[in-house]
Design brief:
The protein is mainly α. It is built from three helices and no strands.
Length: about 90
């Protein structure tokens, strides 16, 4: 693998998107390229963090809360009831 190929995989590595089989080849190239590879990975991690912090929060769709509560109610009515702990008690019971 040449350094340009490593650079492309490093972008995927930083965001956790390497495909099956790429991880081993990436790690071998990482060792081969040494400090140059580590510097590149550090730079990509920093850029990834800056990008993530630059995103503005997005309000959920107005139906999201309604759909979530409906799903919870359906689960409760399906006979599953509230989650139980190891002593067989539901949340809030003592």
């Amino acid at each position: 693998m040449n350094f340009e190929e490593f650079e492309n995989l490093a972008r995927l590595y930083v965001v956790g998107a390497l495909e099956d089989g790429e991880e081993e080849a990436f790690q071998e190239a990482r060792q081969e390229f040494g400090a140059r590879a580590e510097n590149l990975i550090a730079e990509f991690r920093q850029l990834n963090s800056v990008f993530a912090l630059s995103l503005r929060p997005h309000a959920p769709h107005p139906d999201t809360k309604r759909k979530l509560l409906q799903a919870i109610r359906q689960t409760m009515h399906a006979g599953r009831g509230p989650a139980r702990n190891s002593e067989g008690r539901s949340a809030g019971e003592r």
